[in-house]
């Protein structure tokens, strides 16, 4: 059976599709290095005549407090990662390693909450935070992370369920408290899963747009995403070289993080799908 | 309850207490509050005033709402099958021992990591009518067709044309198929090779092997992805919002339910109406998910059943 | 577990970034009261405002005004006020007032202004009136705005029209429009005489060109009346003459307003309705040999006895719940003084909302047509800008329907009737809300006097 033609076909297809998929990235970087007058010429120029590296600092300048926005995004991401990892682990442990009445029904409820769209809770949560005096602070964007996100609890629970019972039964018989079992036995075994959860949460927070849009009103608290959108709505339209430079800067940390943690990332995503 | 059971119950509840607090404050309370607000006129700067079911009857007669609903459903109905097919296709291609697999996998996966703001701004630039890359790439084949067939086809001004803006958004979404592709790839790798060998010996060609071995065994993964995709696409907000600079697109073609909820709440200060819309969206998601689950359960093939 | 260690250097960078960028907020002005001022301007208009702010900050040592550029300011201000964390001063437009007032988002300024020495007699009446709603003062005028016809003299000349003779009626404008519109060999538009959507900032108010308005000032929309019908019919003539797709393509090539690619500067649109600030932008972005004229924008039918225009003004308001209203008013009153106001308006190449102007102000004013604008502001036919309670919903709908009309995808009757129905409902809702809250709000405001 000659597999060669089909193999060649696959390679050809991969090359074509790969080119198509990478094109937007290439175009983004290419535009970011062009002077303004070269961005809108027809037919399009692939490479800038002279790469304008200065577009990057100029774009950061034009955006306003770029580093402040970056700091805010980072701060929120770190807080969210810490909160999510801790709270999801605790909650997942409760849903998996302890047998108690009503546990599985409550877990179904947890799963059901994954179907509640943010727009549904947006307005009441806004008024709730308003009453608490949290609007105008970062609190609405990180305190909820400490309350156990459904998706991450689900992920970790699956993982915890896979840890053999005998490891913990012995400790329990010896009279260990649940918390000690959690802390000293389960958590160390769960490091890869916790790492994955933290990674996903970092990406999700870095990417978050609607949350900051609704809850952040002071400009000096804007995240990178919001700051960039602010710039776009004031000066967008034709400063494409700056917009592309700024977009590249926003994407860069995510890509760097991916390359550093590729294996965990891919493994994490694969396991979510395979339930 | 025995004393042991009671102890377990306390321990269990203690461990899940963060979630319980979150559940009550950020799920139960908001849904109940939304129900109340939806029966009120509420501008947030004043207290809510009860007006009965006025918001709902207004919703029923609101042409903009129906358009938002149509857009949301059409987008889901178009983008979910397309991105599923693309993701599976890519996964099948990558499942073969071709050189540079890892590189290709990265290339396909990276776009799904791009933050919504950068994605939207990039595609706003790519889909630009006169100078966007998409149209520049389309112009040559279209010119060729025009010369051969005597037509005068032009690439559409994506983001300014009511008939094409939605398609532009679909293209934008397809670029992010890499995430699902990775999941499908993992699913493909779970399929035992013996099944393929057996099918080959029975004389099945690659298409038949795909249809009768691959697809059926992938159905659980497809099922999961379609449901997640459905819940996600019904809540589409960030990318169209940024693409249209906070608007709703030409002829309101990029107005989604989530966008309309946001507009009603924070542009028009009708939070009561926004709550009614939001509850409708919630019920819609529940209903459609239930339908898909019902439909899918019968067709999903679980290995070992 | 190699992977986490690879992240260590990254984490170190993150920690450095976090530690090094603690924002210095208010720490730069110990002992002074910081007044937060949200400004909608950007670029050189913002610079003009900042110079006045700097003057104020230097002239006294009790208050420090911190000015911020804010985009989408109407939305952000409401969000902040509703969230109970409003700034102290906001730079808005007079058209916003009704919806803010009815939603109780602003502080009534009568008492504060009186105590700060601000007096009605100092102002051109139109601009003082624009700051009032329901009998209360809600804002102080900042820089005034009146609209006029701006035309590209070179394009007139090239088309065989007398560059010194602008159209005197709307019908004449449309004749000129046809003459000035030129196409490329392939049928696409090269330039147009006039395009309603360029810049399209006053479409809500353009019904006045036909002798009417879309709103009766109370609870009724007038889209079924003749002036509105005429307005929509006028819009519909554009796709009929120029082709919807062709216009769309032409507009797609237009650049930003504040850039050399502004279509008026580039010679793509010959006549536009614009305001007094335009000269400033022409100096900054158009080529040095750009020639333009200014005249009252023509209305339909016979020319009016007194020139017609749409009058608006930038305003300074204090949101409800602001932390430092007194200090805010001190700054606002400072801006109202003749020297400060003249400095600001001169820098933005506008005239002032004040009746009295220093003798050299007009004589040495760099704007070649400043007298025309001042006359327009004082004209008995100057119309105050539409201040609908449903301003955002209405604008949203109007832009959508004008767009669809221009593309030829809808008929005028469909557009007009759908808008009348939908917007009347939206207005009814806001009217009901206002009627419910009116008594209590008015009593509250009265007690603050």
What does this structure look like?
- The complex is a heterotrimer of chains A (275), B (305) and C (449).
- Chain A has 275 residues and is mostly helical.
- Chain A is 73% helix and 0% strand.
- Chain A has a domain at 64-235: MetI-like (MetI-like fold).
- Chain A is globular.
- Chain B is mainly α and 305 residues long.
- Helix content of chain B is 71%, strand content 1%.
- Chain B has helices at 3-15, 17-38, 54-60, 63-94, 101-109, 116-126, 133-149, 165-174, 178-190, 193-201, 206-233, 238-243, 257-266, 271-299, and strands at residues 40-41, 49-50.
- Chain C folds into two domains: 31-145 and 312-384, 3-Layer(aba) Sandwich (D-Maltodextrin-Binding Protein, domain 2), CATH 3.40.190; 147-310 and 387-430, D-Maltodextrin-Binding Protein, domain 2, CATH 3.40.190.
- Chain C has helices at residues 2-6, 8-20, 43-59, 73-82, 97-102, 110-115, 125-129, 153-158, 170-180, 226-242, 244-252, 278-285, 325-336, 338-347, 359-363, 370-378, 391-406, 412-447; strands at residues 33-39, 63-69, 89-93, 132-133, 136-137, 140-152, 182-183, 189-194, 269-275, 292-295, 309-317, 382-384.
- In chain C, a hairpin with a 5-residue loop joins strand 7 (182-183) and strand 8 (189-194).
- Residues 23-27 of chain C have low confidence and may be disordered.
- Chains in contact: A-B, A-C, B-C.
- Chain A binds chain C through residues 64, 67-68, 70-71, 74-75, 78, 126, 130, 133, 135-136, 191-192, 195, 214, 217-220, 230, 233-235, 237-239, 256-257, 260-261, 263-264, and chain C through 1, 3-4, 6-7, 10, 14, 17-18, 21, 23, 25, 42, 68-72, 76, 79-80, 82-85, 255-256, 259, 261.
